[in-house]
Amino acid sequence: MVTPASVKDAALVHGGFLLLALVGVFLPIAPLGWRLFGLVVVYGVALVAVSATRRPEWRPLVRFLVPLSVFQVVPDWFLSQELEVLVFPDTGGPRIGTVTGAMAGMWTIPLFISVFGAEVVCARRGVPDEDWSTPALLTAAIALALFTASEATLWALPLWFAKGVTQVARVAVYVLPAEALLGAATFVGFRATRERGLGAAIGAAAIVSMLYLGALATSYFFVERLR
């Protein structure tokens, strides 16, 4: 999956999307929710198009991450509706229950960067392909950094914010172990289905999302209830 050309294309895709996102977020041409939804759709289409034409080595990862991002609506819904510790303000766009509709595709962005970044680092350090633990840990570390940064900043849009839980610089403490685990599990799920079909990818994505939901509930219990 990692070649100089692949890294260059990944940088172009994500650099271009970053510029588009800055314009889309701060240019008030429509309700924020619709702008976010449009940006997520553009990113997903770009990722699928590039993997279908220029970068076929991305296809297994994209095939796994797209359904995973859709399944991730369930943990967000659980936190916002049942535990009431996460709030998605109504920003005018489509919604899925209590969750901003853009979230159904937004998880693809940090998880692609996390897995691809770990693969790049491992390739440059000569980590053998049969070693899953090293890239899984790297994916966890990158994902944790990205998710922490997003938790600390995206409340200002506002996209979401934590409520009624222990926070440090606007970051809910209980989510951090679960988000690191999500990164590692995403890498393992991708590797496990890399040589298999869409059905296996969807099944593994559902398992990873359920694992994340369980990790969130467990972490919430220990951080917020056993005090």
Task: Write a short abstract of this structure.
The protein has 227 residues and is mainly α. It contains 9 helices and 6 strands, in the order ααααβββαααβββαα. Strands 1-4 form a two-stranded antiparallel ribbon. A two-stranded antiparallel ribbon has the order 2-3. The protein has a two-stranded antiparallel ribbon with strand order 5-6.
Rg is 17 Å
Per DSSP, the total helix count is 9
Question: Tally of extended strands?
Answer: 6
Biggest sheet: strand arrangement = 1-4
The shape, in one word, is: globular
Largest sheet: number of strands, sense, barrel closure: 2 strands, antiparallel
Helicity level, as a percent range? over 70%
Structural class: mainly alpha
N-to-C CA distance: 45 Å
**Low-pLDDT windows of residues:** none
The H/E string reads HHHHEEEHHHEEEHH
Overall pLDDT, averaged? 95
Number of domains: 1
Classify the beta-strand content into a percent band: 5-15%
Kindly describe this structure.
The protein has 227 residues and is mostly helical. The chain has one domain (60-225). Helix content is 70%, strand content 5%. The protein contains nine helices and six strands. The strands form three sheets. Strands 1-4 form a two-stranded antiparallel sheet. β5 and β6 (171-172) form a beta hairpin. The longest helix has 28 residues, at 198-225. The mean pLDDT is 95.
